[in-house]
Design a protein that fits this description.
Elements lengths: L2 H14 L11 H7 L5 E7 L6 H16 L4 E2 L2 E9 L4 H13 L4 E4 L3 H14 L3 E3 L13 E3 L4 H15 L6 E5 L5 H12 L10 E2 L13 H8 L5 E4 L3 H12 L6 E4 L7 H5 L7 E4 L8 H14 L5 H20 L5 H8 L5 E3 L2 E5 L5 E13 L2 E13 L1
Parallel strand pairs: 1-3, 1-4, 4-5, 5-6, 7-8, 7-9, 9-10, 10-11
Antiparallel strand pairs: 2-3, 11-14, 12-13, 13-14, 14-15
Helix pairs in contact: 1-11, 3-12, 4-5, 6-7, 12-13
Length: 395
């Protein structure tokens, strides 16, 4: 075994004991052919302050974990990971991309906010540098050549839950839909209504909150919640993430104790601890659960918990996969890759053996993947998103 493989094996052994490390180790021939490959730069775009910072941290952690388990290399090349703050507007996002491009990055990754993703589309396409987005994925991002996403398309989160709730809700039930006024909400609502049945009388007209801020106050949503509950719903379907999710649920629970359904971002990550008892029983649809029992997830989740002392999120998983697809694409380009070669190679990598399960890019450059139902339950003193079952394959 080469020196490089010994290091990788020891890293995985430390995370996993003696289980599952062999498949992650390449051959001696592979190591010899990549030993002389030069360094490359990858640009990481995430929010470094504000209500989405925790999501940005997860994205950074997931990508870094892949590098840790692969000797800080992608496709055999030593990696310098450069970071930039996406902020929360198209203007700040463009500044982040422009700064990274000036430093000669081979590829970009990250991006949490859908408004930022839409805002940077043209600058990325014009620069002809691939962006492997690991979170933001509005359905309006069509006909792109250099933008790939390892997360999802937002309407799929609504579709997965709409299909499930259509069959679960009693015939005399009624759902109130409450969404923030942001770029992604129309996608989620459209997907939910199309799968549930747009003309189904059990779906109330959506209520859009007056605020799309990522840092809401303690009464930001009260009026909108009151308006939605005036229709006497038996359940609520909503779409929030980060700090906004915490405040929304707290304010909702002051008026409503019934069942809550949502895309999984509502209860994903550190927000779950902040919600505490208010989150119990919430059911969500997501493309990942740390409970998934497959070899890739056992490697990923164990190593992630060991390094960061927390359970991995879908944000971290999608970023880990962004590193994984870059690793494979760069490997395909040979010894001296340029951004255009990497972009073409991304279309040739086929199936990805991911912690979420096997997936592959579809024609719009987004994943074809499974979606899962989860429920917030108490695991000892800790709140946990417990895997219930598989919902659908979408994409």
């Amino acid at each position: 075994m080469s020196q490089m493989n010994r290091r990788r094996a020891l890293q995985l052994l430390a995370a996993l004991g003696t289980t599952g490390f062999a498949a992650a180790c390449g051959s001696d021939t592979d190591d010899q052919s990549t030993a002389d490959r030069g360094p490359i730069k990858i640009g990481m775009i995430t929010p470094q302050a504000g209500g989405f910072k925790s999501i940005g941290d997860d994205i950074t952690n997931g990508f870094q974990l892949f590098l840790d388990l692969h000797d800080q290399r992608l496709g055999g090349h030593p990696v310098e990971l450069l970071t930039a703050d996406e902020g929360d507007t198209a203007k700040t996002g463009k500044a982040a991309v422009d700064g990274l491009l000036k430093q000669g990055v081979l590829a970009l990754t990250g991006v949490v906010n859908s408004s930022v993703m839409v805002g940077i589309r043209d600058i990325v396409e014009q620069a002809r540098v691939p962006l492997i987005g690991s979170n933001a994925s509005p359905s309006s991002l069509q006909s792109v050549f250099y933008i790939w996403r390892t997360s999802y398309v937002l309407d799929e989160a609504g579709r997965a839950m709409g299909r499930y709730l259509r069959d679960q809700l009693p015939s005399n039930g009624r759902v109130a839909i409450i969404m923030p006024g942001n770029v992604g909400s129309p996608d989620v609502v459209r997907g939910f209504r199309e799968e549930f049945g747009a003309s189904d009388p059990r779906i109330a007209d959506p209520v859009t909150t007056t605020s799309a801020t990522s840092n809401p106050g303690k009464s930001t949503y009260v009026a909108d919640i009151t308006k939605a509950l005036a229709k006497k719903p038996t359940a609520v379907f909503c779409f929030f993430a980060g700090a906004a999710a915490v405040e929304f649920i707290k304010q909702l629970r002051n008026q409503f104790s019934g069942p809550v359904y949502a895309p999984g971002f509502l209860t994903e990550g550190t927000v779950l601890e902040s919600m505490d008892r208010d989150a119990l029983g919430i059911q969500t649809a997501l493309n990942y659960s740390a409970d998934l029992n497959n070899t890739s997830n056992r490697v990923f989740a164990s190593a992630y918990r060991k390094k960061y002392q927390v359970t991995p999120t879908t944000y971290a998983m999608a970023s880990y996969d962004a590193a994984q697809v870059l690793d494979q694409a760069i490997q395909l380009t040979g010894g001296s890759p340029n951004p255009q070669q990497v972009n073409l190679a991304l279309g040739k990598i086929g199936q990805i053996d991911s912690p979420r399960g096997i997936w592959q890019f579809n024609q719009p450059r987004t994943p074809q993947q499974k979606w899962y139902l989860r429920e917030v339950q108490r695991d000892g003193q800790v709140m946990s998103n417990v895997l219930i079952n598989e919902l659908a394959t979408l994409g």
